[in-house]
Amino acid sequence: MRTRWKLWLALTATALWLWFIYARSAQPAAASHDESVAVLDRALRFLPGLTLYALRKLAHFTEYFILGALLLQDWRLLDRGTVLLPLGAGLLFAAADEILQTCIPGRSGQLSDVLLDFAGVALAVGLLLLPLLCRKENDHRDT
Length: 143
Fold this sequence. Notes:
143 residues
């Protein structure tokens, strides 16, 4: 029963995070710009020299890094198939996000953003799997 509860929480967290990503993407260009400028004003206190362009790209990467961690957790709890599943899901969500933006006034979908988003997913999955792979390697050496 505990595993079901963990799985339910993990899947809910992933769904909520996807909602957060898509809510940001569904904003018209002017609203998205205003939100980014407000965040930049606060961020400049800690990161002088940060540009709006860099902030927006960092936001893409960070949103999908978190998504990658959540998808990996879902995959581990579901214990289903290859690790390519969370990577593929992350790529699919990134592409769908950019396609959605082509329907929003003033926004456009960018292949470079899909690649940046996927890089965030891939880095999260890789970093979080590294300890597991090291542990398996050490277990294998001990036998």
